[in-house]
Amino acid sequence: MLNPDQKYRLSPFYNRQSSLSAKFANYDNNWILAESFSDNNKESQALKHVAIADISNVGKMIVNCSNFNQYKKLFGIVGDYKPGKILTGKNKTVRDDLPDTITDSIYCVLTDDLGLLLYDEKQHFYVIDVKTEIHNNAEKFTYDVYFTDVSSVYCGLYLLGPDSVSILSRLTEFNLNSKFSCAYVSLANVQCILLNQNINDISGYQLYFERSYGEYIWDVLFNSGKDYNLTPIGEKTLQNIGWKWL
């Protein structure tokens, strides 16, 4: 039962999850998330086929930059920088003169001048430190960089399991069999940012989109996934398979 005097953060899937008898728990930053839908064994078994989880609590920052080669140097990012690529902690080193910010984050290169930074919201103040660092040293840079926090604007879902690709293929014309890490896609006529991201040995796709489409996307995924017995899983099962951003 939610305390009416407490400010909580709910994802747009809360009502849909409630109708499926989800058990909720209070996570960091007052996020109310589905902890479980059934016993752990049943949810774990679902991952052998296809499961869906709410990851709306992930921190999300749109980054616009006129020169990403210099931006890459600023943050110590190494490796090829091109649209469709994901840069994760193992691809990055952190400069000694900047806050220790991006060691546990995902950077999605969407276009030549646009990216999506995903991070554990517990690191939110470190991200602010980096933005402050850039602002305070603006005269050193020969390019413009802008950060827009979209954590409350975008929600997120994680499709996990080998049948994930079959469900998504019914909803988008994007070639999911192409070699991609992230992309803008139209999913059931809704613009989404799609990440091809496994958790350990479990194949998966992360979807981020405007929360106003939350229930609609939830419904179309479940309709598309009826033949595959798409099963919701809670944060407890996500943690058990290696998800850390809670």
Quickly describe the structure.
The chain has helices at residues 14-18, 40-46, 68-75, 124-136, 164-169, 214-224, 235-240; strands spanning 9-10, 23-27, 31-36, 51-54, 59-65, 86-88, 105-111, 114-119, 145-149, 154-160, 182-187, 190-196, 204-210, 231-232. With 246 residues, the protein is α+β, with helices and mostly antiparallel strands.
Task: Please tag this protein with its features.
246 residues, alpha+beta, Gyrase A, domain 2, Alpha-Beta Plaits, 2 domains, 6-stranded mixed sheet, 5-stranded antiparallel sheet, 14 strands, globular
How would you characterize this protein structure?
It is a single chain. By secondary structure, the protein is of the alpha+beta class. The protein has two domains: 13-58 and 153-240, Probable tRNA modification gtpase trme, domain 1 (Gyrase A, domain 2), CATH 3.30.1360; 59-149, Aminomethyltransferase beta-barrel domains (Alpha-Beta Plaits), CATH 3.30.70. 23% of the residues lie in helices and 30% in strands. The chain has seven helices and 14 strands. The protein has helices at residues 14-18, 40-46, 68-75, 124-136, 164-169, 214-224, 235-240; strands spanning 9-10, 23-27, 31-36, 51-54, 59-65, 86-88, 105-111, 114-119, 145-149, 154-160, 182-187, 190-196, 204-210, 231-232. The protein has a six-stranded mixed β-sheet. A hairpin with a 2-residue loop joins strand 7 (105-111) and strand 8. The protein is globular and about 50 Å long. 33% of the residues are buried.
